[in-house]
Amino acid sequence: MPTMSDVARRAGVALSTVSYALNGTRPISAETRERIFAAMEELGYKPHALARGLASKRSRIIALLFPTPERGLGFTELEFVTSAANAARNCGYNLVLWSSEIHNPDEMRQLTQQGLVDGVIVMEVRLEDDRIRLLRELEFPFSMIGRCSDCDGIPHVDIDFHETVVEAVAYLMQLGHTRIGFLNQSQSTYTAGYGPAVRTQAAFEAVMQRAKLQGVSRFCRAAPKAGYEAFGALLAEHPDLTALVIMNERAVPGVMQAIADRGWSIPDDFSIVSVVSSAAAAEMMIPPLTAAEAMTAEMGRLGVELLVRQLEGQPQDESGVLLPCKLVVRGSAGPRRQTY
Amino acid sequence: MPTMSDVARRAGVALSTVSYALNGTRPISAETRERIFAAMEELGYKPHALARGLASKRSRIIALLFPTPERGLGFTELEFVTSAANAARNCGYNLVLWSSEIHNPDEMRQLTQQGLVDGVIVMEVRLEDDRIRLLRELEFPFSMIGRCSDCDGIPHVDIDFHETVVEAVAYLMQLGHTRIGFLNQSQSTYTAGYGPAVRTQAAFEAVMQRAKLQGVSRFCRAAPKAGYEAFGALLAEHPDLTALVIMNERAVPGVMQAIADRGWSIPDDFSIVSVVSSAAAAEMMIPPLTAAEAMTAEMGRLGVELLVRQLEGQPQDESGVLLPCKLVVRGSAGPRRQTY
DNA sequence: CTGTTAGCGCGTTCAT
DNA sequence: ATGAACGCGCTAACAG
Question: Most CB atoms within 10 A, among A72, A139, A297, B289?
Answer without folding.
Answer: B289
